[in-house]
């Protein structure tokens, strides 16, 4: 629900800078409450110039908010990331500067879960290669014989919101659902129709291994040479989480040596993956980090963080706050009347 802020006739509206594209209908609603300005966040010089007056900065993934940006923004009170990942925001530096950082952690979960299922099916039925063949004027039906998903074992690494949604969507395919998550009990998994296994056993058992954990120091390289050596030659790996969780060099070797059957990757350690061999392997399906790339997810993300921005200027609780310590551990910046 949109709440309109009441500003006095003598008080300027807070400057809200949008540095990545947002849905036009949502930005139109901001003009009554904010002095809305826009720049292209990928243009570093333009961003550093525009952020000088900003009291709120709304970004997606193209804008990098680091110490330099924060130093150029003495009036900044909140950075709002219209999406889930905060890889492009120095949250610690923002906290030191007394700047709130918000995101929309559940905005894309349905979209990512649906993409995951789509990638699994595309591998089992060889859809990208079959579509490319027809586009090239060919009709090679016998070359694209696939496999049924029904009856296979699907191992879900990480049983948080997205992992649970993936399980719900795969259950009608009559698969065996397995998971590993050190923060989830076997009883919790069982209540969702999923068996909990140690990671090594999960990798060794799964026909499909799908990754749904955040990238942290503990999960970087979680699936590497040792884990892939445990996999069945029929195993297919899916990563729609974050690049770097799977050791890409080890994955490329396993695929090239036919030690696993295939992979579907929406994320890479370096994006775009111009130096990676993975996009060039016939057994790999690649997409350009489109997990959140639906109109519904983008609208939810933008709406969520814009509501948080309004809350910050109205003195209401700010939802989606990634650095709550900023409210208790740092002196707030000078309030701006709205």
TrEMBL record:
Instruction: List, for all copies, the residue spans of the domain called D-isomer specific 2-hydroxyacid dehydrogenase catalytic.
Output: 17-320
**Its catalytic activity?**
(R)-2-hydroxyglutarate + NAD(+) = 2-oxoglutarate + NADH + H(+)
Keyword annotations: Amino-acid biosynthesis, NAD, Oxidoreductase
Q: Which SUPFAM superfamilies match?
A: Formate/glycerate dehydrogenase catalytic domain-like (SSF52283), NAD(P)-binding Rossmann-fold domains (SSF51735)
Enumerate the Gene Ontology biological process terms.
amino acid biosynthetic process
Q: Which InterPro entries match?
A: D-2-hydroxyacid_DH, D-isomer_2_OHA_DH_cat_dom, D-isomer_DH_CS, D-isomer_DH_CS1, D-isomer_DH_NAD-bd, NAD(P)-bd_dom_sf
A family per Pfam:
2-Hacid_dh_C
What EC number(s) is this enzyme filed under? 1.1.1.399
Name all D-isomer specific 2-hydroxyacid dehydrogenase NAD-binding domain ranges.
117-291
> Single GO molecular-function term?
oxidoreductase activity, acting on the CH-OH group of donors, NAD or NADP as acceptor
PANTHER family, per the entry: D-ISOMER SPECIFIC 2-HYDROXYACID DEHYDROGENASE FAMILY PROTEIN (AFU_ORTHOLOGUE AFUA_6G10090)
Q: Which family does it belong to?
A: Belongs to the D-isomer specific 2-hydroxyacid dehydrogenase family.
Role summary: Catalyzes the reversible oxidation of 3-phospho-D-glycerate to 3-phosphonooxypyruvate, the first step of the phosphorylated L-serine biosynthesis pathway. Also catalyzes the reversible oxidation of 2-hydroxyglutarate to 2-oxoglutarate.
What is the designated name of this protein? 2-oxoglutarate reductase
- Species of the source: Streptomyces ficellus
């Amino acid at each position: 629900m949109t709440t309109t802020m009441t500003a006095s006739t003598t008080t300027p509206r807070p400057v809200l800078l949008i540095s990545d594209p947002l849905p036009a209908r949502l930005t139109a609603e901001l003009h009554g409450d904010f002095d809305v300005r826009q720049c292209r966040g990928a243009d570093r010089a333009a961003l550093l110039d525009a952020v000088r007056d900003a009291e709120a900065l709304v970004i997606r993934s193209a804008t990098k908010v680091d110490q330099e940006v924060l130093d150029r923004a003495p009036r900044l009170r909140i950075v709002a990331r219209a999406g889930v990942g905060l890889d492009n925001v120095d949250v610690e530096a923002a906290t030191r500067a007394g700047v709130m950082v918000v995101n929309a952690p559940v905005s894309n979960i349905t979209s990512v879960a649906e993409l995951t299922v789509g990638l699994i099916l595309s591998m089992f039925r060889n859809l990208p290669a079959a579509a490319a063949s027809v586009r090239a004027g060919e009709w090679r039906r016998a070359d694209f014989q696939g496999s049924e998903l029904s009856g296979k074992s699907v191992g879900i690494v990480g049983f948080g919101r997205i992992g649970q949604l993936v399980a719900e969507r795969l259950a009608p395919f009559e698969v065996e659902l397995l998971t590993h998550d050190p923060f989830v009990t076997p009883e919790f998994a069982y209540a969702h129709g999923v068996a909990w296994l140690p990671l090594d056993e999960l990798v060794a058992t799964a026909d499909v291994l799908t990754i749904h954990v955040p990238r942290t120091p503990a999960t970087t390289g979680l699936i590497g040479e040792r884990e892939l050596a445990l996999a069945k030659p029929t195993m297919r790996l899916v990563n729609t989480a974050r690049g770097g969780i799977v050791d890409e060099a080890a994955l490329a070797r396993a695929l090239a040596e036919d030690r696993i059957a295939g992979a579907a990757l929406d994320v890479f350690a370096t994006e775009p993956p111009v130096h990676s061999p993975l996009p060039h392997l016939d057994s790999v399906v690649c997409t350009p980090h489109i997990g959140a790339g639906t109109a519904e997810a983008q609208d939810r993300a933008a709406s969520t963080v814009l509501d948080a921005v309004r809350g910050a200027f109205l003195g209401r609780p700010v939802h989606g706050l990634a650095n709550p310590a900023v409210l208790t551990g740092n002196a707030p910046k000078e309030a701006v009347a709205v």
